Structure formats: structure tokens, C-alpha cells
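Students often ask why inverse folding is considered easier than folding. One informal answer: many sequences map to the same fold, so there is more than one right answer. In these notes we will look at a single instance of the problem. The structure comes first.
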């Protein structure tokens, strides 16, 4: 990432990734993961929470993500699984640091299913309105009470990829309950900004929640 994109990210990151602080689901953040041996960059999109609304002993459970929307830029994601699939089941210990994937389990491997809007389910971008969900509903996908964040996607890109702004919605619940809670937020993956990206970024910081 060049100095220009670093400055842009420093100035806008807090506002764009999390939006205004909100009880329970507090927004998305983008964190840099391990650097690839070939010089590419791993970005982790994480959903963040707090403990507001949890009773003693309860934890948040991730259910699904949906309505992926590109606000600005090109995702330009790289894959290293054989089929260039977005499904985390095609990612394993051997390519975990070089493959892009979406996940409902908070990690790579089995347990994630793609919804019908995720078509095509391969390639460098995520289709508009695509989503993914827990393929093993009998196993709770618990948000760690220590970090209060949950990995929903890993994006691997070259250092010269453009700045990307997107938005996403999600559903979660508290353990021991059946009522889904809905959240929405925007996020920014750092990169080289295109003309007009700063203006669009200024409109992207929205987050919230509602109950069905």
C-alpha cells in the first residue's frame, strides 16, 4: 500500500469500518492478517459486538451474512484453491493464508453454505446481494467473549489493488434464544483510492440493528 492510501485509511478507518458505536453489534472492521510469501496482503473482515443485551452466561451466535454490496472500487480478490471458490470448505491448512473465502464458522473449512444469490460462487468478486450461512445449525458459531469479533470473510489482494468500499448485513442471536437480531454496516479494504472514492467513503459509515 502506498503512502497516499495509508493516509486515507488512517483518516477514515474508524468512521467507515464501524460507523457510530451501537449496542450489541457495533459494526464491521477490516484487519490486516498474515502477509503472503508472494507479497500479497490478507485482509480480514470482522463483525464486532459488545455484551449489551446478554444475560449472565449468554454469548452471541453468528447465523448468516447477506446483501453484500459494492459501494466503490473492485474487490480484486485472489484464490489459491483449485476451483477459485468463495466457500470456506475449499480452504484448508495448506492454503489458509493465500486464499479468499467467506465463512459462517469464523474460520476456514467445512460448515459454511452459500445462498442462491452467491452466483457465480467463484472468481475475484462477490456477486451483488450474495450471502452465506451456517451449514451446521445444530452447532452454535459462538462469538468469543474475549475479542468480541467474528471473522466473516478473508480477502487476499495484491498491494496495488484499489481501495474497496462495501456493505453487508448479518443475523445473529443470543445463546438459548430463537429470536434473530439484524445488523448492517459498511467497511473499507485499504488500497489505492480512485477519483471520487473519498466522497463515497464519507457516505459509507452506517451501522445499525433491528429485531424481527
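Output (designed amino acids):
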Amino acid at each position: 500500500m502506498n503512502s497516499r492510501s495509508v493516509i486515507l485509511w488512517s483518516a477514515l478507518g474508524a468512521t467507515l469500518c464501524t460507523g457510530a458505536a451501537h449496542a450489541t453489534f457495533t459494526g464491521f472492521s477490516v484487519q490486516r492478517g498474515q502477509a503472503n510469501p508472494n507479497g500479497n496482503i490478507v485482509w480480514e473482515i470482522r463483525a464486532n459486538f459488545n455484551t449489551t443485551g446478554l444475560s449472565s452466561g449468554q454469548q452471541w451466535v453468528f447465523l448468516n451474512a447477506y446483501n453484500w454490496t459494492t459501494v466503490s472500487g473492485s474487490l480484486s480478490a485472489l484464490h489459491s484453491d483449485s476451483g477459485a471458490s468463495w466457500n470456506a470448505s475449499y480452504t484448508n491448512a495448506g492454503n489458509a493464508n493465500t486464499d479468499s473465502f467467506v465463512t459462517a464458522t469464523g474460520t476456514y473449512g467445512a460448515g459454511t453454505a452459500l445462498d442462491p444469490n452467491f452466483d457465480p460462487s467463484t472468481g475475484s468478486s462477490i456477486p451483488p446481494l450474495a450471502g452465506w450461512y451456517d451449514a451446521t445449525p445444530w452447532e452454535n458459531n459462538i462469538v468469543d467473549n474475549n475479542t468480541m469479533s467474528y471473522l466473516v470473510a478473508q480477502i487476499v489482494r495484491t498491494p496495488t489493488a484499489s481501495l474497496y468500499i462495501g456493505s453487508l448485513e448479518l443475523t445473529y442471536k443470543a445463546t438459548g434464544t430463537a429470536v434473530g437480531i439484524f445488523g448492517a454496516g459498511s467497511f473499507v479494504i485499504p488500497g489505492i483510492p480512485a477519483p471520487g472514492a473519498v466522497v463515497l467513503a464519507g457516505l459509507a459509515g452506517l451501522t445499525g440493528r433491528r429485531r424481527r
